[in-house]
Amino acid sequence: MPSFHFETVWHLDAPLEAVFDALADSLHWPDWWPGLVEVRQLVSGDEQGIGRTQRFVWKSRLGYGLRFDIRITRVYRPRLIEGEACGDVVGIGRWQLQAKQTGTRVRYLWQVRTARPWMGLLAWMARPVVIWNHHAMMREGRTGLSRHLRDRAQLGNGERW
């Protein structure tokens, strides 16, 4: 089956802890990440989140859906969240965060291979389009997270409801 190695870097104008908290709260990602249809808790995990397993359901910009579970394998607050994916894709996802003078640098690594035969066929035939779709959805995630963090900061300051 085809494999993909994606690296995405976001620069967010928000403190490290706030970004980490938003990324760790993946049950609420559908509130701000277009294309993410549902996140459902399957296993709660320990107090750090290790072992937490959630099912993610995505609808791509190309119209196909992806369903996979992520089991959290490592958490180093507030710098790292790593998990193993299984389902329509199999592999590893890793959020790495770094404080910067202007906010937070987020690096996301997504190393997966397709697990369904139809996806393998699509990936071989339309690899550039699949890559474009991934990057477009990640840009939408960055925009949504930035807006979400800005709104939460304004709520915390009493400026907005």
TrEMBL record:
It comes from the Bacteria. Coiled coil: none annotated. InterPro entries: Polyketide_cyclase/dehydratase, START-like_dom_sf. This is SRPBCC family protein.
